[in-house]
């Protein structure tokens, strides 16, 4: 009974810590959870589901690494990763979220859709604060991007910040 209460307490700590990265509640579901307080890490395995604010993520496994203040520094999802954020949808084999840098690294057969726009590559790095994205090819295939002119100037990543093109258009209309 005492071990069960500790397990519930650790789960609550993990959820609160991950919630610190978002502005509202974070819901995490998985088949199992292992929390190692001495190493500042939590391992979620089996059908991992994360829901927070406007982000939903699914994966086979997820690791959450904390700093000494129990705030998440890095989240690594592996296996059949799918991420949905507003009108952005991404699939990859691995996703790494660097909380302090506000960077998301997707790797392994990455495919990203935003509306009708599409891109694919071996690795996609999203720099949210800079409204910038890098796409790297694999040894066997090149980077592919499909975009539609009616969405010209829109960023493939909707960060809530206007792109340079949108800022220029806004300044030009004054």
TrEMBL record:
Keywords: Periplasm, Signal, Transport
PANTHER family: LIPOPOLYSACCHARIDE EXPORT SYSTEM PROTEIN LPTA
UniProt keyword Transport, yes or no: yes
Taxon lineage: Bacteria, Pseudomonadati, Deferribacterota, Deferribacteres, Deferribacterales
Signal peptide from the UniProt entry: 1-21
GO MF, any single term: lipopolysaccharide binding
GO CC terms: cell outer membrane; outer membrane-bounded periplasmic space
Protein name (Swiss-Prot/TrEMBL): Lipopolysaccharide transport periplasmic protein LptA
Domain (Organic solvent tolerance-like N-terminal) ranges: 27-131
Superkingdom of origin organism: Bacteria
The UniProt record lists the keyword Iron: no
GO biological process: lipopolysaccharide transport
NCBIfam families assigned to the protein according to its UniProt record, in alphabetical order: outer_YhbN_LptA (TIGR03002)
């Amino acid at each position: 009974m005492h071990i069960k209460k500790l397990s519930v307490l650790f789960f609550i700590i993990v959820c609160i810590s991950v919630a610190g990265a978002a502005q509202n509640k974070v819901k995490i579901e998985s088949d199992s959870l292992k929390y190692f307080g001495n190493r500042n890490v939590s391992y979620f395995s089996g059908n991992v589901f994360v829901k927070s604010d406007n982000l939903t993520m699914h994966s086979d496994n997820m690791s959450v690494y904390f700093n000494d203040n129990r705030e998440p520094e890095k989240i690594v999802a592996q296996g059949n990763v799918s991420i949905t954020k507003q009108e952005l949808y991404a699939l990859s084999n691995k996703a790494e979220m660097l909380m302090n840098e506000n960077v998301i690294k997707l790797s392994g057969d990455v495919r990203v859709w935003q509306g009708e726009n599409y891109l694919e590559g071996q690795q996609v790095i999203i720099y949210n604060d800079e409204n910038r994205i890098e796409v790297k090819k694999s040894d066997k295939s090149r980077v592919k991007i499909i975009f539609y002119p009616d969405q010209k100037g829109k960023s493939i990543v909707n960060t809530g910040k206007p792109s340079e093109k949108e800022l220029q258009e806004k300044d030009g209309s004054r």
